[in-house]
Each structure stands twice: as structure tokens, then as C-alpha cells.
């Protein structure tokens, strides 16, 4: 980047801080995937600093998640310094800053921009979401910027990067193009190994419906082409919340009327349309404190300085009428009713068989009131078995985690999902407790099972069952072959008193189209209504 | 007979001196010092309370020494693939995977014998990212300089096996391209094959193996013939006696303190059956291997055997 006039070192400091936060965000996402790496509470840093999650979760559950109290720091900073979180810390904000910069390279600078009525859209959205949360519909994670970015990085960015590196290197490895002893793999293999061993350090992941998650992310990033930092200006509910706390910050833009010649360069440089060029009409609730305007002014007419927060700013008040706020509340209530009306959300309805929640997940209603759909558990899951739910469990469950055993099972020794969950929707269980927590029950489809229906040996499922006393047991049965001869085959059966529903049997079944043993959510520990098995009743032991 | 070079003379002298010194310990030593035996069995005769890591290291060292040392198999500059059983996300105490100290010792011996690279890897059943570290093998082998290879599922290549049960199957090329593959399984119970030993350990070099279960003796025999085993080391320091191959209950684990090495895979598997209390003649994979001419079930009479007590 060519900087003709590096006039503001604060601008550079901000860029370094912003870039550092984005790198840290990606580093955490990569680090979480390394199995055996002790998961640290620090990995939740960006969630813990997010007051939107604290407030929305508290409204929905009437409980405070202790770690989220860290976000009071963010609120305190915002009261004093304005929305510097948006300008200096937010990693999604950094993505937008970079994209906006590319847009300037591509298209030249945007035109003069003023306060727009659309600025208030984000406040309307925030109020609607918080009203929904108050009545128990916790959809904040879909639009919360930290959750949104984490989910997009998990389901789109990192698998995409992984795929590109791995598959291109593997294609070259298989084709092995060479001229005499000069092989292309001599270059590609070290690059591949570097990425495999130093950067990704874990197998590649893929997610059901990941395209839609990526698509939303790409759309949000592409909106920077319409307006600089479109998302932050018009949509971001966290930005709106911080804006509510920043009507009279101590850190304020000082506009020197004597030096201003109305050139408008500061306005062109402002990503927020916070009106730094209009004397007395600077908008503290929109400003990200990015120092671009200060750096853009040729005459040193702008600077940030401290004033008493008690003194009201000259102008530039929050642009939200009482009527708009009321309309937002009504909108929120309508939306929450729309979420609750479908049949899948009625309490007396049966539970979807495929909704196998991770071990330690709270009962469904409480789970949904905490889960941000941030994808942290899916990112951490070593088998890639945790996948985003689409619409099968209602709008409230969108992109929340479920186990899809055909893709990956719940590893017996692992409980990373509970360790990384930022809101406790998946509780952090002790290993022994986790190993006794039932998330479902396995069922044989005897019309597909090889020993049951074809009289062939198999029992891969029994081999994989991780319980010390296996939940799948074998019974030898004499079967009559086509030629009339008799042969003994080991047939597998599930002991419902032991099975915890980890799904490794389904995952390992020789049938990959539709496994001959499948796990459903039946018997899950977290839901007494979904427990049809009477423990220890004894039963059918052997064919 | 050709006149020995000075190096050969020194080596032979050393081996002879060693054999003489160890002579009283060797129980069934019937071989001459010049021709190393087909199989060696090292049993622990030291203190019961000795650290299990020490037992594993010493047994492995002595078993390898007794079949002629690693130099018999490894040439200077060789790439060696050590193939333990790392199938399961279990700890060493649970005896579902090969003992990490046995693996570590083999890696060290390979380097001492002049190997250029020693790689360690297995096509695991549970996620490799969990099995490798939890088995203790990753850190143990890394300590002595092994290259830990996480197999990339996209890099298997369909290869001609040409057996009666297996025509073709995807095999991991990097393993086949190595100069030597050391097959080092743990002795375990297995629900489908009763035992899992050296021959069955080769299921960790292939993909698409779930269908093997419809004819395990046949498929395992074919893949063993394809792999042309040259050196196998049987780890029976701890064995899993029930609920295999995964185990998980320490009550099913028994400390036997035995390591055997050999060039005859069927003979080693026959020994493994006996360690688990089974007659090898009744175990499908062993019988299939014997009938295909891959080795001798009656290892005591048909092979030159060296048994030693190690303290």
C-alpha cells in the first residue's frame, strides 16, 4: 500500500491492532482443531468480549454466563472511547476494512456520503432480536458478527483453503508431471507438507449446507462494494448495541473550523459516514475511531481529544425515534411467533430422529436459548461428525450442531465440543460423565445387515464399539445356505442399557449409502420424554 | 570358503563372543553363530516391579539382537516403515495399540543400523489425530527421530493383489515404496478373528477394508502375501485378552512381558495364539497363511528358534 502522507501514527496503530486481532482469530480457529492441544479458556476470547452475547443470552435464559462478564470491559471502553471495538478489535470489521480497501483500488474512491436513514436499520434489527431473545427465541448468533465470522470460517473459509491446497497437491502427486529427473512434486510436496504439518495440522472438514453459510458470508463481504463497511453501518447488531452506549463518549473528534476549507477529503476517507466534515454534526454513535479522517486532512484540522462525557455533543444524536423502536419491538414479536408456529416447534410433537445433539447439550429449549450457532463445537469435533442443522428442527435451530454419524462419530475419549462452547449450551462434562451420557441409541436394520439378512460374516460395528463392555454383542446362529448346507454366523445385537449412541457403528458399517445400523436421538439423557427404554428390563438376547 | 574381510571378521567375532556370553541364558539355542535364527522369543525374567518401559525396551533389543541384529534387515541409507497397530483411540495401558516403547526401540535400532529415514504410520480405525497421540506412539517415536506419517486418504492407490479373495485394493504407496516394512502388532483378542496379530496388522496399509470382514482369513492371507513380510516383531508386553480389538477395561489387560521377532509371519502368529491361550491350528487366519505357504504353524520344530530370558 502506498502511503503518500503517513500523517497519523494512530491510523497505523489501528491497522496493526485490527490485523493482529484478525490473525489471532484465525490462529484460534486453527489451534482449536489440534487434538491433544489442551483447549484454553482464551480460545473463547472474542466471544467473552462480546456484550451482545452476554445481554441476549441473559434475556433468553435469565442467567448470566460468568465468562461473558468480560464483555463489560467492552461496554466500559465504548462508553469512554466510542465504538473503537468496531474499528480496532472486531475481526469481521477487519475483513470489511480490507475489502473496502480493495474496492477503492478497483473502483476509485466512493462519493461523498452523509447520514442515511438506513443507518437506523441496525438499531431496529437489534431491538427486534433482543425482544425475541426476551421471549426465548435466541437467534442472535445468526447475525452477531463474531458468531457469524466463526461459523463462516469454520464452514467455508478454512475448509475451502484446505481443499485448495490438498487437492491441487494431490492431483499433481497422482499425475506426477516431470521432465527427466525434474519433478513438479519436488516443489508441490514440500508446500503441501508445510500446510499439512504446520498450518492445518488436522484433517480437512466439510459441512452439510456449508455453501449457504459461505454464501451469506460472501454476500456480506460483497456488500462492501455497495458502500464501505456496509454491514457495520447498516446491519451489525453488535455495532448497534455499542452505538447505544456511545452517544457521548469522552473521546471526541475536534473539528477546527478555522482550518477547514470544506475539501471533503475526511468524508471520503470515513468508512462509517460519520460526517467528520460537517462542523458540529460528527456522529459519535457511528464513528469507529479509525483515525482515517485525521490522517486524510491536509490542514491538520481534525484531531481526537478528550472531553467530559457529561457534556452533550453539539449535535449528531442517535438517529432512532421512539416510533421506530416500537415498530422494531412489534416486528420482533411477529418474527418470534413465526419461529414458534411451525409444527416442529410444538412441545408435544415428537423429536426429530436425526437431531442427535452433542453430549452435554442442555435440554432442547434451554439449549436453543444459549446456542449461538457459532460453529465452535463443529470446528473442534475431531471426526467432523458435528454438522449444522438446516431447517428440520425449526428456524430457531438453524445451524446449531447435530451429530451425523454417517459422516463422523462421537469419539469416546473426546469432549472438545463442551470445552469450546462459549455459552454453555454444551456443558463441559468430566470425561467419565461424558462417557456415560447417552446422545441416542443404535438400531439394526436387519434387512440390510450382512449377518442378519445375507448370512455372511461381518461385525465391523461390534469391532468399533468403544465401550469397555461392548454395547453390541454377538450371538452365533446356524443358518441354511442356498445349497442346503448349514453354517454358523455371528449376528450382532444392541444392548440398549449400554449403548450411548456415539454412532461409530453407523459410521463404520460396510454399507455407506444407508448403513445397516443407524443411531437416532432415542434414549438421549437430556430428554426424559425421549427415553422409551426401561433400564435393566432385560430382553431379547440372541437370535 | 572365501577369506573374510577384516570388517566381517570383527563382526563375526563380536557376534560369537556375544553368543558365548549369552549362551547360558539361551534356552533352545540350536543355531550356529553364523546363521541367525528365523525367530527369537524374549521373555522377562527380571524383577516383576521393573518399570514396564524398561521391560519393553530390553525385550525388544534382545529379541532383535537374537535374530541377528537390525543390520540383517536394514542397509545403510534405507527408508524403513515401522507399522505398529495404532488403530484405536486408547492409551498404552489399555493394550489396544502396540506398546510405544517397543516401537521407539525399533526406530532407534533402525537408525543405529544406518537407516536414512524411519517412518511410523498406520491406517487407523479411529481418527489418527486422536489415536496417534493417545497411543503414546507419536511422542515416543518422535523422540528418537522417526517421521510420523498421517496417512492421507486421497493418496491410496489401487494395486494388483491377485489373490483368490482380493483382486485389487487401494494400498498406501509410501509404505510399499519403503525399503523395509517392519510389522509390529500388539497381541490382542478380536471378536471376528479370535486373535489379531502380525497378519491382521496389514489391514492398516489398505483402504476399503470393511468388506474384508466377510472373509477375513482369505483377505488377510492375500494382503500378507502381497506385502512379502521380511521382519515382524510381536509385542506381548501387555496383551488384551477380551473385548478386543478395542478393549478399554483394564481388567481385560494382562502383562505377559514377551517380545518375539522373526522372519516367519505364520510362526509368530502361531506363538501369539498360544500366548492368548488358543491353538493356532484352530485360528482361521493362521491356517490360511500356512496353507498358502506363507510360513510354519509348527514353529518349534520347523523353524530355527532362539528363546531367551532377559533380566
In short:
The complex is a heterodimer of chains A (543) and B (311). With 543 residues, chain A is mainly alpha-helical.
Poorly predicted sequence stretches spanning 5 or more consecutive residues of chain B: 18-32
Order of helices and strands of chain B: HEHEHEHHEEEHEEEHHEEHHHE
Kindly state the percentage of residues in helix of chain A: 40-55%
- Gyration radius of chain A, rounded: 28 Å
How many domains would you count in the coordinates of chain B? 1
C-alpha geometry of chain A: globular
Largest sheet of chain A: 2 strands, antiparallel
Which range does the strand content of chain B fall in?
15-25%
Q: How would you describe the overall organization of this protein?
A:
The complex is a heterodimer of chains A (543) and B (311). Chain A is mainly alpha-helical and 543 residues long. Chain A has three domains: 9-138 and 225-306, no CATH class; 151-214; 364-530, no CATH class. Helices cover 42% and strands 8% of the residues of chain A. Chain A is built from 23 helices and ten strands. Chain A has helices at residues 9-32, 45-48, 51-61, 71-81, 84-89, 91-107, 121-134, 140-143, 145-175, 185-200, 210-222, 230-235, 237-244, 265-269, 292-296, 322-340, 364-368, 376-380, 416-420, 431-434, 450-454, 460-464, 504-508, and strands at residues 178-179, 182-183, 251-255, 302-306, 386-388, 401-403, 441-444, 472-480, 486-494, 517-520. In chain A, the strands form five sheets. Chain A has a two-stranded antiparallel sheet with strand order 1-2. Chain A has a two-stranded antiparallel ribbon with strand order 3-4. In chain A, helix 1 (9-32) crosses helix 9, helix 7 crosses helix 13 and helix 9 (145-175) crosses helix 11. The relative contact order of chain A is 0.11. By secondary structure, chain B is of the alpha/beta class. Chain B has eleven helices and twelve strands. Chain B has helices spanning 6-22, 52-66, 100-112, 128-134, 137-143, 173-176, 198-201, 216-227, 265-275, 284-291, 299-302; strands spanning 39-44, 79-84, 117-120, 147-148, 157-160, 168-171, 180-184, 186-190, 194-196, 231-240, 253-262, 305-310. In chain B, strands 1, 2, 3, 4, 7, 8, 9, 10, 11 and 12 form a ten-stranded mixed sheet that branches. In chain B, helix 3 (100-112) links the parallel strand 2 (79-84) and strand 3. Chain B is globular, with a radius of gyration of 18 Å. The chains are: A mainly alpha (543), B alpha/beta (311). The A-B interface holds A 34-36, 166-167, 170, 173-174, 196, 202-203, 382-383, 411-414, 450, 456-460, 462-470, 474, 490, 504, 508-510 and B 88-90, 125-130, 133-134, 150, 152, 154-155, 190-192, 210-211, 213-216, 243, 245-249, 252.
